[in-house]
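I would love for you to help me understand the pair of lines that follows before we discuss the fold together.
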Amino acid sequence: MGEDGARRPPGTWIRALVLHTTRGIPGGRDLRPQKILPGLGPARRTARATNQWWSSNGTCAGAHLLVDFDGTVACFADLVTEMTYHATSVNAHTIGIEIAQGPNAELWEGQLDAVVHLVDWLTARFDIQRQIPDLYRGSLARLREGGRDVVGVYGHRDQSAMRGEGDPGNEVFRRLGDVGYEPFDFGSGADRMAWRPRQRLLGVADDGVAGPMTCNAIRAFQRNHELPETGLADAATRAILERVDEPV
């Protein structure tokens, strides 16, 4: 791993994905709107250059994955056994995804489409519930303090007061919301309040944190209701859960 990561503690439950942009601006310190260009960006060796920089610049910074301008995905660390130094307090139990920005901090539509596909695959692979921050409210105490009760997909800006709005900006979360990711006010604990009654109906501990036992219970629930057994509470699963008034 070099200076940009370390081994994960054995048996770590990976509970969240953290989205980053390589420049973190605009929409941050310079307050300009985030610029999204049509199509895909140019094919560059951004991943190689970024990885070399992380490995030798002395800042102890890194990420697991990088989505380049043209939608290419590069993997820099083992997602299961290695953690990267991408978001301090939550490193041990998250996967970090960098989105490469152009020289003027621009992103491309096709690149963001690739990010959505990547996040879809990762949430399915790691049983991470598809939930996102509903709005940007600055860094959240729950995440600064370790984020062990926060499940889903959030931005570096939600974890650190040192990053601006553009890390990663609003557009990627808008796109995730468009494909069904459930928005919550993580700062107020709205996610945990929503999950407690769901967990009671599923017959698991109602701590409001949708972990592996909750995902397994969702699979059984989906099987009983002839839904795809994903373990993720998609809109169809939630709709049936809301109609159920007895524990399953």
Q: What stands out?
A: The chain has two domains: 2-188, 191-243.
